[in-house]
Amino acid sequence: MTERSTLKVAIAQMCSARTQSENLITVGDLAAQAKGLGAELLALPEVSGMMNAERKPAEALVVGADEDPFIAGCRALAVQHRLWIHTGSTPVRAADGRFWNRSTLIDAKGEIKAEYDKIHLFDVNIDGKVVFTESKSFAPGDVAVVAQTPWGGFGLSICYDLRFPYLYRALAQAGASVLFIPAAFTVPTGEAHWHVLMRARAIETGSFVIAPAQAGLHADGRTTYGHSLAIDPWGRVMADLGEGAPKLQVVELDLGRVAKARAQIPALENGRDVPLRRV
After folding, report:
1. What distance in Å separates the CA atoms of residue 135 and residue 172, rounded to the nearest whole number?
2. Which whole-number Å values give the CA distances from 187 to 55, 70, 193, 223, 224, in the listed order?
3. Residues 6-267, CATH architecture
4. Which of 16, 22, 90, 227 is the most buried (most CB within 10 A)?
């Protein structure tokens, strides 16, 4: 496969509702906008399919991936607009009765090219103000994923994965040149860490980072930070969508810049595993 040298990505910012049907309406509008602006791929945020912190109503809506209405709807939109779609994520039923927080990469023919289940679950207590235990409802994934596409390797991850740099080093060493980090960051953690961590992942790996985000006050009472980002392999911010949703911005990635950045600072090659001595 001859890799394409540029990629036009539409980065979407959403304030997702409680149900897949409501969110599909928003995604349908975003897909039409993305196509009209010349995008080749629409990138959605984490929990773009459903954001519902209340377990009982969520239980009634979450099904297996093969039956999930949001994934099916995104596949239909991909065909309609001849557009690749990265779903960000949506909850699907896991084998043990919990949910997986799943990303799905869909090509312009509506075919599923890759699936990824969030590995690192958001179990935190920040000064008693932000208390969240994702592992109560979600099962962790256990496989890192690099999807092969006409633009080269896409490294898949979700939100809290951002804080584990070894994952991104492994994705880059496995051939990823674009790292997708869809998210639903809280406001306190977003204000403190969002920009610096996203830029760090791009710099460390010499990769493009595409980070679509949730933004605003959601129907389930949560508030998310926004500031969807595109970052180049040198760590420069190419796009920052700020606050508010829904909205999108199209950015063009010159994929040749990945090899250039990695040649100038070959950190992926220069890394060493060394023994640790406690003294």
Report:
1. 27
2. 22, 26, 10, 7, 6
3. 4-Layer Sandwich (3.60)
4. 16
